[in-house]
Amino acid sequence: MSEKWINEERLVRALEPVHAGLVPGLCLFEAIDSTNAEALRRLKSMQSSRLPPPMAFIARTQTAGRGRRGREWMSEPDAGLYMSLLRSFDLVPDALQGLSLVVGLAVYEALKTLVGIGEEREGISLKWPNDILYQGCKLGGILLELQRDEALSHVVIGIGLNLDLPPDVDSLLDRPTADLKQITGERVEPVKLVTALLNQLGRDIAVFEEEGFAPFIARWNRVDAYMGKNVRLQQDSKWTEGISRGVDSSGGLLLEPLNDDGVTSHATGEGGLLRFEGGELSPTLRLNEDRE
Ligand code: BTN
Predict the structure, then answer these.
(1) CA 101 to centroid of ligand 1, rounded, Å
(2) Dihedral through CA 208, CA 214, CA 69, CA 233, nearest 10?
(3) pLDDT of 4-32, one tens digit each?
(4) C-beta 71 within 6 A of ligand 1
(5) How close is the Cα of 188 to the center of ligand 1, in Å?
(6) Which of 33, 39, 76, 200 is deepest in the core (most CB within 10 A)?
(7) Above 80 in pLDDT, residue 246?
(8) Alpha-carbon distance 195 to 165, whole Å?
(9) Model-level pTM greater than 0.90?
(10) What is the C-alpha to C-alpha distance for residues 59 and 6, in angstroms, rounded to an integer?
């Protein structure tokens, strides 16, 4: 490593053995195509072995950073944190529903601890299923990639967090963005951020492995950017409009549907709520009317 971008020794000392009782192995790169792609390659090379150990892949820059829905994740050197955590579970893929929301909550908690921010009044919130927002602008994103073999489910948990974006970034991206420097007024040290993230992820994933998503529902609903707001959910060419009612015990999004006049319709499933497992959420024009 040419300079102290991340001091590996310092990082190892600060990490807690909370990933299946272990400190994750570390692979640091000055540059790589994508930390998620590297984690998947590593997994493939290990697949003949037993349970792969937890490993974290962190890069200073990515040349082909991957975002959700096949989008590119802009990854200029030092502009963001680019990290992937490889974890393997003795669980079927269905039991892992909700894991990406747990990761979002761990990121939220780590930021709260690290830079003293949190709860909505401070402007940080989560957008279902896995965006981190600051005052409604994108501060970070999460991309989970799953591989299954006969016995285990392997998950690559990719996290991109904006640290210090170039000034012209909004003209390059299709959405408003935020970075941590704008929130704290100074550069957050990557080693501190990685420590807070990996330790919190280990603790939350351990609870999720034992108890599923149910213990996280209240935490999610407290920091949900659109709770009680009018939203539109896009799934391919289909969209549904409704009032966001948070998440259920497996992390599915609950929407109270609206009819064409914007009045709540009751002709739906249990509790009058519709449940969704994927899609792209956005606020609608009726956003400002909060509904209890
Ligand atoms: C999103 O589109 O919101 C998800 C972005 C995820 C980006 C991270 S950066 C580290 C990891 N490696 C990748 O190629 N993507 C994820």
Answers:
(1) 15
(2) -170
(3) 589 999 999 999 999 999 999 999 999 99
(4) yes
(5) 19
(6) 39
(7) yes
(8) 21
(9) yes
(10) 10
* Order of strands across the sheet that contains 238-247: 274-276, 253-257, 238-247, 230-235, 280-283
Nearest Cα to Cα of residue 68 among 224, 281, 217, 237? 281
142 in contact with ligand 1, CB cutoff 6 A: yes
DSSP strand pairing (253-257 vs 238-247): antiparallel
**3-state secondary structure labels for all residues of the chain:** CCCCCCCHHHHHHHCCCCECCECCEEEEEEEECCHHHHHHHHHHHHCCCCCCCCEEEEEEEECCCECHHHCECCCCCCCEEEEEEEEEECCCHHHHCCHHHHHHHHHHHHHHHHHCCCCHHHCEEEECCCEEEECCEEEEEEEEEEEECCCCEEEEEEEEEECCCCCCHHHHCCCCECCHHHHHCCCCCHHHHHHHHHHHHHHHHHHHHHHCCHHHHHHHHHHECCCCCEEEEEECCEEEEEEEEEECCCCCEEEEEECCCCCECCCCCHHHCEEECCCEEEECHHHHCCCC
Of 119-128, 172-181, 205-214, least confident by mean pLDDT is: 119-128
- Which amino acid, residue 102? V
The predicted pLDDT at position 4 comes to: 58
Identity of the amino acid at 134: Y
Confidence (pLDDT) at 116: 72
Report how far ligand 1's centroid is from the alpha carbon of 207 (Å). 24
